[in-house]
Write a structure and sequence with these properties.
The chain is an all-alpha fold. The chain contains 20 helices and 2 strands. About 70% of the residues lie in helices and about 0% in strands. The longest helix is centred in the N-terminal third of the chain and has 32 residues.
Length: about 525
């Protein structure tokens, strides 16, 4: 077995308690250790990506128990790219939080960040549906602490709503798992793929119930209509570095849908058929519209960023709901883009708000280094809205091209194109108020405004780095798309995945497998 597969889970799990208990009184030491751990995690994830690029599916059996009796971690192209994205984003967020002093505004910021990355990486690597529930709870518990980090009445209220929604989702998840286990006798993803396909359509009522309950659970995580309302409030009021890391958290829901509703409940499973896509596509279309209208109507910079992140995630979910290799390849490319673009937007918003002292989109005198902030905001606005030359433009073209033959193509194209226009208008309005009108002569200073604070290189570097990554994603769109297309093809041809998971160490299949 390749023992590096478990490292993205074990490394942050070991570092987090050390940060919380051994180093809790020394924030500088916490920063050094936490960032070092994230860098090591990024190096390990890069190595796993190279390993997975060969197309071989590798399995790590915890306790050396064979599937489906033991818990397994599975490394394939899909899990590898998402683990690397999580690790890189973690490094960027930790640098920003340390440089801006966000990690001093509460207790155990770095420990919670490590637990969060542990849960996210575990969700991407696990090959067992019940273990997926377990790591979901780990990342959610960490996110509860991060969402209210720094305190404040408004943040606590939004955090309470976030907790209630996710507790409801967790309860539904347990019900779905119990229903699925009662129907199939297993919760191993590869074993489920075999068992579900053996059930005749006329006897699969409970399986369909379980599949749709899971769809609802993952739709909550991905913030799709009609359960999208928790995201704008939570992201707008969370600390900006936390909101930047949360950009990858909605992708856990998208990943779970891609994994389970292709490998287990795929279109070729007679028991399920096209049922998931029939419900998911309309929900994604409506969510795109809600995100665009939210950007247009936002009165604050953080709410604008939150609705923009919602619309970007929903655009990706349109391609996920296509449930076809071409659409899945486009979805994965756009997933990488939308995660980085949303994170950059929250980081830049933090730099702006720290110097303005107010989240309201109202005219104020120009802040220190107004030109630099305007340039950074312009860059992230282009990325999020999907304008050339950055990768959002290519990503949306890929999504639209992949869905050009879909039955709802008119609604899909209309939602994406009109939504993009509204998003551009919303960002243009915000940018003119924040930066252009702020240079008008005669503006009165704002009472109790913060002292002008120049942006240090360490504070600007994370935002610039993410914009650089988006530029690289555009320049190397060809190789990246080849990788995502190969990932989608591997996802929709699950036989190697199933064979690798259910194979014993001696190279034979488990005798109970069919």
């Amino acid at each position: 077995m390749n023992h590096w597969i478990i490292a993205p889970v074990v490394l942050p799990a070991m570092v987090a308690p050390m940060l919380a208990y051994v180093m809790r009184h020394d924030v500088v030491l916490q920063r050094v250790v936490s960032l070092a751990a994230a860098l090591v995690l990024s190096a390990i994830a890069a190595g796993l990506l190279v390993t997975a690029a060969s197309g071989e599916v590798q399995v790590y059996r915890l306790g050396d128990w064979p599937a489906p009796f033991g818990i397994v971690l599975v490394l394939d192209r899909l899990s590898a790219i998402l683990v690397l994205l999580t690790a890189v984003l973690g490094v960027i967020v930790l640098i920003h939080a340390s440089a801006t002093g966000w990690d001093r505004k509460g207790r155990h910021f770095h420990a919670l960040m490590q637990f969060q990355m542990m849960g996210i990486c575990g969700a991407f690597l696990t090959g067992d549906a019940f273990n997926l529930f377990v790591v979901f709870e780990i990342l959610l518990i960490a996110s509860y602490g991060l969402a209210i980090f720094g305190g404040g009445e408004a943040r606590l209220k939004a955090g309470l709503q976030y907790v209630i929604m996710n507790l409801a989702g967790s309860a539904l998840f347990l019900i779905a798992l119990g229903t699925l286990y009662a129907s199939t006798g297993t919760l191993n993803i590869a074993d489920l793929a075999l068992k579900v396909r053996e059930i005749p359509a006329e006897d699969a009522a409970l399986v369909r119930v379980a599949a749709m309950l899971m769809m609802i659970v993952f739709a909550i995580k991905a913030a799709l209509f009609p359960v999208q309302f928790w995201l704008p409030g939570t992201y707008a009021l969370a600390p900006a570095p936390v909101a930047a890391l949360f950009a990858i958290m909605t992708k856990v829901g998208a990943y779970a849908i891609l994994r389970l509703h292709t490998v287990v409940f795929g279109p070729d499973a007679q028991a399920i058929g096209a049922l998931p896509g029939d419900w998911l596509m309309p929900a994604a279309i409506v969510t795109v519209a809600i995100g665009a209208l939210g950007v247009m109507g936002s009165k604050g910079l953080m709410p604008l960023a939150a609705f923009a992140a919602l619309g970007s995630t929903a655009t990706m979910m349109l391609a996920v709901a296509g449930f076809a290799p071409l659409a899945a390849g486009a979805a994965l490319y756009y997933l990488v883009h939308s995660t980085l673009a949303a994170a950059a937007l929250f980081l830049v918003a933090d730099l702006v708000l720290t110097r303005r002292g107010s989240d309201l989109l109202a005219v104020q005198p120009a802040t220190a280094q107004n030109g630099l902030l305007a340039a950074l905001f312009f860059g992230v606005a282009i990325a999020v809205a999907g304008m050339p030359p950055l990768s959002g433009f290519l990503g949306k073209l890929l999504v639209l091209d992949a869905l050009k033959d879909h039955d709802l193509r008119v609604w899909i194209w209309g939602a994406v194109l009109i939504g993009s226009l509204l998003t551009i208008v919303g960002f243009a309005r915000a940018g003119s108020v924040l930066f252009w009108k702020s240079t008008a002569p005669g503006l009165e200073p704002v009472p109790n405004a913060p002292e002008p604070m120049p942006i240090s290189p360490a504070q600007a570097a994370p935002s610039i780095a993410v914009l650089g990554l988006l530029g690289l994603l555009t320049v190397f769109a060809g190789p990246v798309m080849r990788y995502t297309d190969a990932t989608a093809a591997q996802l929709f041809a699950p036989a190697p995945y199933i064979d690798a998971v259910l194979e014993n160490q001696d190279g034979t299949k488990d005798p109970e497998d069919h």
